[in-house]
Each structure stands twice: as structure tokens, then as C-alpha cells.
Design brief:
By secondary structure, the protein is mainly β. It has 2 domains: 2-125, TolB, C-terminal domain (Neuraminidase, 6 Propeller), CATH 2.120.10; 132-178, Laminin. Helix content is 0%, strand content 39%. The strands form 4 sheets. A 4-stranded antiparallel sheet has the order 4-5-6-7, with no helix packed on it. Strands 8-9-10-11 form a 4-stranded antiparallel sheet, with no helix packed on it. A 3-stranded antiparallel sheet has the order 1-2-3, with no helix packed on it. Strand 4 and strand 5 form a beta hairpin.
Length: 179
């Protein structure tokens, strides 16, 4: 799945399949400007920062079990969000500090470091990487991803795929080749 935020006409947190199909709103109320988003892949939770409401909130992948992690002035101007173990990591764009917040109770907010021009944060650690299994977009014997001549996108699960074409091309009737 792909998870993303939108604060156009109606602010929301959404999810869809990797090919853009099955788009679903998972949060669409009591939300104003959701920006940064992070996933807990193990427990299947979605965390986001709302910069208008000065809050960090969480829901499960279906939009249930919503609650506020932390709210208020101390977390103004947040951008970027990452989850690792018991903490959320984020960047305060006002003073360029990296903050660590206890994700279970919103306490223990600590400033860890200051970085010039930081706007995003990621955690790279072996335990945060999901196991890779064979999938529908693997290279075929001819070197084409999933048998697609241009672009292969995973669909509703790792066994299904959708072929797409680069700009200026159209998908052929075989659903794989681009012309």
C-alpha cells in the first residue's frame, strides 16, 4: 500500500494500492494540514503531523483507533516524521532541531541535535526493513519488470501488477507493451 496526505479542498490521510487503484480515505475529519507521515510497519499504524493543529496523531491502517500523541506549542513547525522503537523522530523547521517524542504517551520530548536546512528525517536500521519476497514486478527472462515493457507497479498485493507506459506512449492491447 501507499499512504499519503492531502490538504487541498478537504484535508485527509489516504491509502491506495501501489498502482493508484483502490484509493481510500482513512482520516477525513478533525484534520486541517497533514504534512509529515510515518508508518509503523510491524503494528500497522499511520502517524502524521498536522501543522495547523500543532498535533501528532495516529490511526491504524483502516483509520480506526485514532488518538493524539502530542498537541501544543512545543511541537510547532514540525516537518518530517519517522518511527523507530518507542519514539517518533521529527524536525522542527523553526529552530532546525531534531526532536524525539515518546510515541506511546507523548512525553519525554527531547531535542537531540541541530541541523542546518533539515526538512525530512528517515531511520535506516535493519529491523525497520521488511522482508522481500518474490513479487509480480520481478524481472522476466527478457529483463522486463513483470513482463512490462516500461513500468511495472505492484497492484492489490505482491502477486498482482499493473503495467504503465512512460509519457508519450500508450499501453498496447496486451496490457504489457507500450507503443
Amino acid at each position: 500500500k501507499l499512504f499519503f496526505t492531502d490538504y487541498g479542498n478537504a484535508a485527509k490521510v489516504e491509502r491506495c494500492d501501489m498502482d493508484g487503484m483502490n484509493r481510500t480515505w482513512i482520516v477525513d475529519s478533525k484534520i486541517e494540514q497533514p504534512t509529515a507521515l510515518a508508518l509503523d510497519l510491524v503494528n500497522k499504524y499511520v502517524y502524521w503531523v498536522d501543522i495547523y493543529l500543532d498535533s501528532v496523531e495516529v490511526v491504524d491502517y483502516q483509520g480506526r483507533k485514532r488518538h493524539t500523541i502530542i498537541k501544543g506549542r512545543q511541537i510547532r513547525h514540525l516537518c518530517g516524521l519517522a518511527v523507530f522503537e518507542s519514539y517518533l523522530y521529527t524536525v522542527n523547521s523553526d529552530n532546525l532541531t531534531i526532536l524525539r517524542i515518546n510515541r506511546y504517551n507523548g512525553t519525554d520530548v527531547q531535542s537531540l541535535a541541530r541541523l542546518d536546512n533539515a526538512k525530512e528525517i528517515r531511520v535506516y536500521q535493519k529491523r525497520t526493513q521488511t522482508a522481500v519476497r518474490s513479487h509480480a514486478c520481478e524481472m522476466d527472462p527478457y529483463g522486463m519488470p513483470g513482463g512490462c515493457s516500461h513500468i511495472c507497479l505492484l497492484s492489490s498485493n505482491y502477486k498482482a501488477r499493473t503495467c504503465r507506459c512512460r509519457t508519450g506512449f500508450i499501453l498496447g492491447s496486451d496490457g504489457r507493451s507500450c507503443k
